Amino acid sequence: MSLLSFRAFHHLTRALGRSVRFCALAGLVVLALAPSVHAEPVDDALAAFAADGFDDTQKGIDILVSSGHDSAEAILAALSAGKLMVRNDDKALFIEGKAGAFTDARTGASASVDAAKLKVVRLNNRLRRSVQAALGAVTLQAPSPARRIAAARAVQRSRDPAALPAVDAALARETDNGARAALQTARAAIIVAAKDAPEAERIAAVELIAAEANPDAAALLRSVQADAPQALRTAAEEGIAGIERSLAFWNAMQNVTYGISLGSVLLLAAIGLAITFGVMGVINMAHGEMVMIGAYTTYVVQDLIRDHAPQLFGSSLFFAIPLAFLVSGAVGVAIERGVIRFLYGRPLETLLATWGISLILQQAVRTIFGPSNREVGTPDWMSGAFQLGGLSLTYNRVAIVIFAMLVFAALLLVLKKTTLGLQVRAVTQNRRMASSMGIRTDFVDAMTFGLGSGVAGIAGVALSQIDNVSPNLGQGYIIDSFMVVVFGGVGNLWGTLVGALTLGVANKFLEPYAGAVLGKIILLVAIILFIQKRPRGLFALKGRAVEA
Amino acid sequence: MLTVKLIDRYGAVFIAVLAAAAVIVPFCNLAIEPGSAFHIPDYLLPLIGKYLCFALLAISIDLIWGYCGILSLGHGAFFALGGYAMGMYLMRQIGPRGVYGHPILPDFMVFLNFQDLPWFWLGFDSFLFAMVMVLLVPGVLAFVFGWFAFRSRVTGVYLSIITQAMTFALMLAFFRNDMGFGGNNGLTDFKDILGFSVQAGETRAVLFALSAAALGLGYLLCRYVVTSKLGKVLVAVRDAESRTRFLGYRVENYKLAVFVLSAMLAGLAGALYVPQVGIINPSEFAPANSIEAVIWVAVGGRGTLVGAALGALVVNVGKSWFTGAIPEFWLFALGALFVVVTLFLPKGILGTLQDYLGHPKAAKPAPEPDGAAVAHPAE
Amino acid sequence: MDASVTPALLYLDDVSVTFDGFRALNSLSLVIEHAEMRAIIGPNGAGKTTMMDVITGKTRPDTGEVMFDGHHDLTRIDEAGIAELGIGRKFQTPTVFDMLTVEDNILLALKSDRRPLASLLEKLTSARKERVDELLERVRLKDHRHRKAGNLSHGQKQWLEIGMLLAQEPKLLLVDEPAAGMTDQETADTADLLREIAQTRSVVVVEHDMVFVRDLGVKVTCLHEGSVLAEGPLDAVSSNERVIEVYLGR
Fold first, then answer.
1. How much is the pTM?
2. What was the ipTM of the complex prediction?
3. Mean pLDDT of A307-328
C-alpha cells in the first residue's frame, strides 16, 4: 500500500509537469485569456465553448472539470453527444433535449429558442477523448459510489492520461472500497497505456489489472504495444493467460449455476412424479397438469391480492404455496379415487386414462382462463441480480434452487418420519400384509397420490416465476419429468435429486456447443440409450423384489 | 385351436367393405354428377383416404400392442418418417417449378441459403428409391431402437416412455431448419406424382384406391402373422414373457421382428397420407399424435386388427365433426374417451361385440392386465 | 461329450448369489447325474428358487461354476439358450399362457426351431399333431384341449405345465412344488408321472410336502441358508440333527 501511494505521488508530479489541462494551472490560463465580469469559472467555460474553436473548447472542458460545478456533467454530456448548441447572435449556450426542446446550459431552465439560429459546438477526435475523460473525471466526484465506480470504469476504458490527475485526486478522498478498487484499476489502465511511465510502474499496473478477471482487462492488456519493453510484454502476456484461465473457470461455474438452476426446476417438476410413479408405481400422464394448476392457482391468488390487499403482494407466493398444494392435491385425490384406483396393476391403461385426464384439464383451464399466457408477477424481493465472484445470479433463480431443496427435504422427512410415510412404504412393499395390519390401503393410496400431486402444484408456483403460465405449461415438463425419474432410478428420491441436477448441468454444458434444441435432443437420445443400458436407472433397487 | 382361418367372419366383412369402398367412393366422386345424392364431393375423397391411412397406422399399432403387449407411444414417428420420405420425392418432382425456380433445390432450401442438395436428399427423385425409403427408414429406426430396447429388456411403461421421448426428440430435430427438412413448414406445395398432378381428381381417386388396398393388404399381412405360430408366441410373450423365454424362445427377436414390421406398415400409411393431405410437417411427430393413435386401437378393440381400423375411423369421424361443429369440446370429448374406454370398455367396440355375439372360430386374444411391468404394490 | 469337464449332467460348484447384501446362495455345490431324480427340500429362504433361477439363467451367480452336460457353461447363456440346451422348468405357481388354448400351450412348447421366421412359416404336420395328442393324453387334458388355459383348475394347470415340459423334450426337468394345491389322488398321480419321466431324463424336484418326497423315493438334498445342509436318502436326511434343528428351531 505504501508503495502504491508513493507511486501515486510520484506520478502526480510527473503528470502535472506534462499536462497543462488540469487543475489550477489550467484555470489560471483561461482566466488570463478570457477576462470576465462573471465570478464563476463555469461562465468562463461556457464562454470558451461559445468561441467554438478546438483550442477554446479544450480550455472550456478543463475549466469545467476543475470547477466541480453541478451542471458540469450535463454540459459535458451534451458536448459529447453533439447536443451543446451556441446561439449565433448572443453566444448563449443551450442543450438540446428530446424532441427539439432546449434548456439553458447555464441554469438548466427550459428555454424556447429558434433552432435555426443555433449551431453545434464542434468536436474533433482529440476533443472527443478529452470530453470522455473529463466526463469521467467529473463523475468521479459524484455522490453515489455506484456512479463513481461507473465513472472509474469509463476512465479505464478511455485510458486517457489526461484523466490521471482527476483519478489521483479522487483516490485521495475515496472512502468506499468498491470505488477505490475501481479507481485503482482505472489508474493502472492509464499507466499501462502511458508510454513514458517507468517500466516497473507499468508492470505493477499490469499485475493490478490482471487481478481483475474480466474481458475488458484482457483487452486492455492486449493493447500493450508490441514495441513495449520485453519485461512489460511478458507481464502482459502472463496477465492475459491468467485472465483467460480465470474467465474459463468462471464461465464453467456460471454454466454449473445455470445447470443447477435448471436442475432444480426439473427437480421440482419431477419430484411429485417420483412419488406417484416412483413410490406408488402409478404412471400419471396428467402430472404436468398438476403443475399447471399450481401455476394458475398462483395467478388467481395474485389477482385477488391485487384487487383486495395490494400491500400483501410481496408475500403473495407464500399464500400461493399452500393453496396450490391443496388445489392440486385435491384434484389429484379426485383423479385417484375417480379413475386410477380402478386401474391398479394395469399400468398401460393407467397411462392412457391419465393422458385423457390431462387433455380434459388443459381444455378446462383453456375454457376458464383463455388460451393466452397469464401474467404472474414477481415480488420485488425476487427480482434483480447480484454478483458472486465472477458469477451473475438472479434472485428468482436462487430462490427456486433453495425452494426446490426445501421441498425435497420436506418430502424426504414426510416419507421417512411421519406415520403417512411409514404407511406408504408399508403399502408399497406389501399391500396385503399392510392391509391385514389395519392400514387403510385405500386411504393411503389416495393420500400418497394427493401428496405427489400437491407437490406438483407447489412446483407450479415456482415455475410461474420463470415460465409462461398457459394451459400448455404442463406439457412442456411431462417428458422431462419422466426422464428425470427414470434416469435417477424409480422409487428413489435421492436418485431423482441426482438425476435432475445431472440432467440440468449436462444440458447447460451442451448448450454452448450444440445450441439449445440440439442439446436437448442429444440429452434425450443419451437418456434413451442410458435406460437401455440400465433399465432401472442410476440408483436401481436390486434383488428379487424388483422382479416381482 | 391349432389352426385358425386367415380370414374370419369380421375379416371377411372388413375386406369386402374395403374392396367396395375402393371402387364405389372414387366412382361416386368422379362419375356421379355433383347434384346427385350419391355424389361424393371433392373434399371428402382425400378426407376418407386420410382415415384409411390412419386405419393402417392403427392396425400397425394393434399388431404390437394388442398381440405382443408393446405399447408404443412413438408410432407417429414412423408414420411421419414414411410421410417425409414420400414428401421428399414429391418435393424433388417440383423441379424448377418452385417459386424461386431453382432447377434442383426445393424452395425452402433456396430460402435458407443451401448451396447444394444435402446428401440424404439424393436419390429421392426416383420413385422406386423413395418407396424403398418409405419402408426402410422407419424399419431401420425401429430396428436400432428395438434392438437396444428389447435386448435390455425394457418393457411396459418404461418402453412407452422412451418411445415417447424418441418421437419428441425427432420432433425437435425436424423443427430445426438446418436439418434440411423444411423446418417448421415441413414439405408442401407438391405438384405431381409419377407425372400425374396431385390435385387431379383421377390421381386422388387412384391414391384413395391404393390406400384402401394398402389397408387391406396390411390387414392380411398382420392377420397372417397373428394366425401363424409366431402370432401365438407373441401372445405368449404378452401374457407371460419370462415363461416364453424358458420355453426357449428369444423374446427380444420376436419383439424386434414384429416391431420392425409394424414400423414399416406405419411408414407406408404415412407415405399414402402425405400426397392426399398435401403437406407433412414436424407436428406429425408430436407425442400427442402418437398417443391419440393408440386410443383409436383401444376404442376399436385391441388384439382384433379389424377393431383397430374401426376405431381409427370412428374416432376420426368424430374428430372431424367436433372440430367443425364445437371445436372447444373436442379435447373434452377425446379426454373423456380415453378415460371411458379404459374404465368401461377395456375390450373396445369389437371385443365387446364379440363377447355378445360369441366368438367366431378363433382364439381371440382379449386384453389382459399388462403384467407387472411396473412393480405396483405386489399383491 | 469328449471335452467334458465332468460326466455329470448338471454340475454346480461353489455358486454364490447376493442380493443387496443378502446371500441367497452361499457356495452351493450340487451334482445331478444322467437320468437321476433328486428331491430338494429346505425351509423358506433356503435358496431353492434362487438355485433354479441360476440354473435356468434368470439370475447370474456372483461366483461359481454351473456346467450342463459336461461342457456348457450355463452362466454365459441366456434363458432361451439354456432352454434349447434341454433344461425345462416348471414354476412354483403354475405359469401357462392363459389366453391360449390348452393345445396351443403344448404346441408352443413342442420341440422345434425357435427362430421367429421359422415360427412364422411353421406348418402343422400330422406328426406334430400326433405328438400334441399324445402329450395331452399323458397329462389327461385331452377333453380340455379347446379350453383356454386360464380357465383350467389349479391342478390341471400344474399338469398342463408338466405336459409343456415334456413337449420340450428336455434332458433335465426342474420342477418347483408340483404337488402344491393338488388333491391326494392328484399328488400320487404326479409322483407316478415324475418317476416315469425320470427313467429317461433327469429330474430335480423342489417340494415341501414330505409325503410326496417319500413317495418319490429318491435321493434328497436339504438346503439351508444357500448351501447344502445334508444329502442322502430321505430317512438319513430327516434324522440328521442339523436338519431337525433347522426345521424345528430350538
1. 0.80
2. 0.88
3. 91
